[in-house]
Amino acid sequence: MSINQLIFRNLKKNLKNYYLYVFALMFTVALYFAFVTLQYDPSMDATKGSIKGAAAIRTASVLLIVIVTVFLLYANNIFIKRRSKEIGLLQLIGMTKGKIFRILTAENFIIYFSSLFIGVFIGFSSSKLFIMILFKITGVNAIATLTFSPNALIQTVIVFSAIYLCIMLLNYVFIKKQNILSLFKVASTTEVKKVSLLEMIIGILGIFFIIIGYYISSKLFGGDFTTMNELFLAMIFILGSVIIGTYLFYKGSVSFIFYLIRKKKDGYLNIHEVLSLSSIMFRMKSNALLLTIITTVSALAIGLLSLSYISYYSSEKSAENYVAADFALTNAEDAKHFKEALHAHHIPYSEKMIDVIHANINMKKILDTKLKELKVDPASMTLPIISDDDVEKINLSPDETLFAGYNDMMQKFMPLKSSGQIELKGRHEVIPQKYLGLQKEYYISYFFTSGGLPVAIVDEAIFDRLQKDMDMKPSVHIGIDIQDEAKIQEADEIFQKTTFSGNHDSRLAMSSNQKRSMGLSMFIVGFLGLTFLITSGCILYFKQMDESEDEKLNYTILRKLGFTQGDLLKGVQAKQAFNFGIPLIIGLFHSYFAVQSGWFLFGTELWTPMILVMLLYTALYSIFGFLSVLYYKKVIKAAL
Amino acid sequence: MYILEATKIYKSYGNKFNKQEVLKGLDIRVEKGEFVSIMGASGSGKTTLLNVLSSIDQVSQGTIKIEGKDIISMKEKQLAEFRKRHLGFIFQEYNLLDTLTVKENVLLPLSITKTAKKDAEQKFNELATELGIYEIKDKYPNEISGGQKQRTSAARAFIHEPSIIFADEPTGALDSKSASDLLNKLQKLNQKRKATIVMVTHDPVAASFSSRVIFIKDGQIYTQLIKGEETRQTFFQHIMKTQGVLGGVQNEH
């Protein structure tokens, strides 16, 4: 048999064994190529919008390369180890290491580059789909065209060739380092050790670290960290403590807990426990690092996806908070023009005017500033003030003040007490008031509230008194609501065409603007998240393929002893539920606490978007669990 | 009453055009409490015979009954069930699970029969003491010697008191001291517990521990020797002589 024949035979055999590797390779290439195509596509300019958008895409593509490289190197590592026997055999019959390396290189070259080109093809065909999704979520009305970008192709080929060189380099090192004997031995290393006291301590320490991390994350914006520096340090600490805790948890706690269960059984294990409990324990130590990485990556992906989805999901809601009507104006002249235009187009509307004055308020008794660096003087804060006559359903007595519409994020940094005494400071007089609490509704637009401060509602009499004392004309909030929702779009077009002299904004324009920028980041994060998901799923699957190969002999023994395939499969299912489930569950917890600590910086809705993201991630991730159970089924069937 | 009754069993591999007959109409009967050895040259079909008798492999033709039950007509699941409850195995390569301790390995067959934990404990203690593996019960297979592994494997075969125990070259991977040690233990268990043992071996010393030796050649029974009242030493001489004839090598004296 000539060398060429050998290479082709190996190829045929490998393709069958490593179909998922080939699949994963094609998929990552496709994802990368599609992404780069988007980057170069001229029709993308509409969504990129700004330099920031373009930079985000470029950063994401670098991150994508990193993930893909790590993934491919890891996968290759598993596969070359599996072939160590074959390599040893070739060496035994007198082939030089150089020649073996050349064979491997040739084999890999064929698999790798054919997958690369198939991947490019898939990526090209799917890039239209991606661009359509992107347009859909950013709300850009453009027709997705399919243009083949030679730049994208060149970039993809360069990147993946570089990765190929890395893989070959590692293979070269692997072959160079081995001698015939050690090549035959690779598979038979065992790692059984008794559980020691040290391990118990490590395990408990791990859980402790995770809990501390969670605890601090829940306190992050609670006011204990008062400078940006402290906040930053706290975040680093949380990250470190949770990641180290996770590692120690896998390294110590899992084997320790299993050890206790086993100890309790006192040697009397049933078949399911044999295949799940003891098998997991057997490999826990070498798996700890891998599981930690997978957990961290999953947590990162879920966290980022949740946060970006939260901001996308809340864009309408936050536009409502910023703009207190469909269209908000501050100039009566402007409003007149706009209303005439609406009339001309037969669009029915309602109008609401609210007088607003700005006054300094002494809020010392009800406000804590948490962040020293915010430089706010609680004794004299300028807030907008409106009268209770302008607000439906609210009627206050002259000594009462109600606050409304305080931005969630500002609230975290400057929380208000639920009640207390405040003072309204006019030019000459100071009016003491009783603060009643905070309402969620937003009555006036962001032009008046400096972006997020609450508005103070006072009794009509007080309002007049204050206004006289201040001796200035109140500014006015004019809110125009379109009665027929279907016509808002049309009204918005008129609004955009009209020229105004004062402050003005349209809620629709604001929300679609928000959607555009959030949509792009969500798309990028989604893309990365998908890659994270697929690579981590594949890595776990490969690992399981590897383990099943090692355990094949056990299945043979057990089946000879009279255990049915069904018995074995149930044990394997439990093992897979653990192998895939534990990193997922811990990852979900991590991301939950991460999102919980800072979600208000991103939007106004927490639960719906977060749970949706988590469910979707879990569903996609479980596919890999099912695939590995199917693989085990095949191995068990072939075992006898 | 025979515990194992195989009549006219044929086994062939390959397809219509390239057929390799391994077993050609073999008859074997084993009585309860017997310790039978099956000997023969390499390729004579010993291991195939053991595999079909123990239901791991299927015959092409013929009937096999264990305790009066026909195992040929059984389905895959029934066979597995039958193996679990009625058969015990000792293999040349020990076939212990690396992930389990000695004790866990031995108790594995009991987990199916839903034996109470206390009974299981008692059974293990007795058997482990008899086989001399009680001290190493919490060790893992890669921490103990070959002889200890094989005795663990034997304990696993005996623990659930099967009707019949099949041993495939149990001493194949052991040095002579550990081998005779194991065989002594097997013989003792055979006598004390009235356990039926069918052992395949090519080692005359191992065979001399049994009560009857069946020689097979080219897929058929060549002859058999019964120990009767002979000492192990003279029985060994007889086995050697027969093996010589069987191998076509004449003794020189």
Using CB atoms under 8 Å apart, which protein chain pair has the greatest interface?
A-B, 25 and 36 residues
Major sheet details of chain B? 6 strands, mixed
Taking all Cα atoms into account, the compactness measure Rg of chain A is: 32 Å
> Low-confidence spans of chain A: pLDDT under 50, at least 5 residues?
none
Mean pLDDT of chain A: 81
Radius of gyration of chain B: 18 Å
Helix content of chain A: 55-70%
Question: How far is the first residue's CA from the last residue's CA of chain B?
Answer: 42 Å
Number of helices of chain B: 8
Helix/strand/pairing category of chain A: alpha+beta
- Helix fraction of chain B, binned, reads 25-40%
SSE class of chain B: alpha/beta
Compute the number of helices of chain A. 19
**H/E element order of chain B:** EEEHEEHEHHHEHEHEEH
Order of helices and strands of chain A: HHHHHHHHHHHHEHEEEHEEEHEHEHHH
Q: How many distinct beta strands of chain A?
A: 9
Tell me what the structure shows.
The complex is a heterodimer of chains A (640) and B (253). With 640 residues, chain A is an alpha+beta fold. Chain A is built from 19 helices and nine strands. Chain A has helices at residues 3-17, 19-40, 45-48, 51-82, 84-92, 97-138, 150-177, 180-185, 197-219, 228-265, 271-313, 315-322, 332-344, 408-413, 460-470, 488-497, 507-560, 565-598, 607-638, and strands at residues 327-329, 349-362, 381-387, 400-404, 420-425, 430-439, 455-458, 475-482, 504-506. The radius of gyration of chain A is 32 Å and the shape is elongated. In chain B, a hairpin with a 2-residue loop joins strand 4 and strand 5 (69-70). Chain B is built from eight helices and ten strands. Chain B has 253 residues and is α/β, with parallel strands linked by helices. The longest helix of chain B has 18 residues, at 176-193. The chains are: A alpha+beta (640), B alpha/beta (253). Chain A binds chain B through residues 190, 192, 266-271, 274, 278-279, 281-282, 553-554, 556-564, 640, and chain B through 56, 76-77, 80-85, 87, 89, 91, 95-101, 103-104, 106-112, 117, 120-121, 124, 137, 140, 142-143.
